[in-house]
Structures are given as structure tokens and as C-alpha cells.
Amino acid sequence: MRLDRAIDAYLRHVTIERGLSEHTVGAYRRDLGVYLEWLTEAGVDDTTAVTGAIISRFISDRSSIVPPPAATSLARLQSSVRGLHRFLVREGIESEDPTGRLRPPKMSQRLPKALTIDQVERLLAAPSAEEPIGIRDRALLELLYATGARVSEAVGLDVDDLAHGDVLRLRGKGSKERIVPIGSFARDAVDAYLTRVRPDLAAKGRASARLFLGARGAPLSRQSAWLVIRAAAGAAHITSEVSPHTLRHSFATHLLQGGADVRVVQELLGHASVATTQIYTHVSVDTLRDIYATSHPRAR
């Protein structure tokens, strides 16, 4: 099968049958575009001609470019290529998977960066409670911290997803749904946005079921949500880097520090494996030292 057609078929599969997000599918498309370009230059244009040695050479070439790609980017590239070839075997297009012996790159495990509770409170209080957009921004930030939602999940919320009292319905990766509690602070902030701001925003654009709307009435994008977080961090004078995932990391870290069971946090975050959640259970050397100093009878 021609490689370009194989890639198109795989992208349709992950979009329609697996229901992956537009963001994830876009990453696969970019990775496989790089793969197709490299194979074309190498004179390979059919899936049958792809071997394990060819794929290993491709990965080696990508590893040696300047500047070198991050290990996470290289791992995602390998995952995209592996997913393509496994799909071809499952569909009966090819009989063997040339990625079977491909080893993922070694990655150093970095602890997620979480804000302190004081920093979170300053961040949440940063948007103006008097300006319509500030009221919306505060609702978004409160909801992100209260639920641990990914930014893509938050901007994908519909108004009806809030119609369950003190819980919220989130749609995660692969269109998997989960129900998470929403605390009183976030609920009050969202209610203020719904009653005081959203009707006016909705009147400026086409009818949309989305909860969070932009200044012109269109659904709020992931990029705009990122700008909201960055602006709030600047207004709160937080000097450390605050990314779209920072509030999610902070949500998980603060829950575990407060005594929550790791499996409960796993469920709230929508992780498929508890191993993914356990990265948050690592504590700093300072925390270990403090606990030892206050708990051990011979510490002093």
C-alpha cells in the first residue's frame, strides 16, 4: 500500500473510530508527515518496503538533528510510527510489524511543577471581579484547579455538563467521560459567569453550547485559555513558569498532600494507569527532612 494512503487511513481511524482529540491527531499528522518525507527521500514509497532497519535509521537520523529533539518529542514520534504500523497489521494490510523491536528512548523522569497553595490563591484572585472577561477568566481558573481538568477538557465543556449540582462531566482522551466533584468556590465563580457574563458573550456570536466563550461569542480556544493562565500568573507576580498543565499538577499534588488516596486522584485525573498518577507521590527532600524532624524521637 502506498505510504501516503496508509497514513491517511490511519489518521481517519484515530479520528473517527478511536475518537482522539484534534490536538492529538494533529500531532500524529505532523510526526507522520516527517516520517513520510524521510522515507520518500530514501526511495521508499510503499508500506511493504519498510523494514525495522529502515525505521531504526530514521529514528537515528531524527535523534542527530541540530538542535536535538527533546526525548519526549522523540518518544512521541516513535509512538506515531509504531501506531501506524500496528494499524496496518491489524487491518490485514501488512503481515508483519517492522517496529516490533523498536525501543523507546530513555527519558529522565521529571517531577511535575506545582504551585504552592499561596501562589494558587493569588493566581485565582488575579482576574478582575468587576470586568466581564475577568469574571470569565476567574471561573475558568477556579474550575481548572477545582477539578484537575486538562485545558482541552475545560474549553470543551458544554453548559449542560454542569447540570449535575456539585459534580461536573469531563470528556478526556479518547472521548472517555468521567464525573468529578466541583467545590463551592469554583461553582460560585462559574455561576457568576453564567448569570452575569455568558449571556452577553453568547449574543455576540452564533449559538454555541460551549460553557466558555471568547469576547466575540465563539467558543474559547485552548490557545486563549493558555493566555488567560499566563496573564493571571503575571498579575499574581508568580515568577516560575506557569503552563496550561500547572493547575492540574497543583490539583493532584495538593490533594495527595492533604491525605487523598492515590487511586482516588487517579480517577479524578482520568489516568488509565495508577503508575501515571504515582509521579505525584514523590516528595521533596525538604519535605522528608521536615517530617523526619517533627516525627522521629531522636531527630533533634
What does this entry look like structurally?
The termini are far apart. Strand 1 and strand 2 form a beta hairpin. The mean pLDDT is 87. This protein has helices spanning 3-17, 22-41, 52-63, 71-90, 117-125, 132-147, 151-155, 184-196, 198-203, 222-235, 246-257, 262-269, 274-277, 285-295; strands spanning 167-171, 177-181. The protein has a two-stranded antiparallel ribbon. The chain contains 14 helices and 2 strands. 55% of the residues lie in helices and 3% in strands.
Through-space gap between termini? 71 Å
Strand portion: under 5%
> What structural category arises from helix and sheet content?
mainly alpha
Q: Helical stretch count?
A: 14
Outline type: globular
Poorly predicted residue ranges = none
The helix-strand sequence is: HHHHHHHEEHHHHHHH
Instruction: Give a count of the beta strands, DSSP E runs of length 2 or more.
Output: 2
> Largest sheet, described in full?
2 strands, antiparallel
Mean of residue pLDDT values? 87
Cα-based radius of gyration, to the nearest Å: 23 Å
User: Order of strands side by side in the largest beta sheet?
Assistant: 1-2
Residues in helices, as a percent range: 55-70%
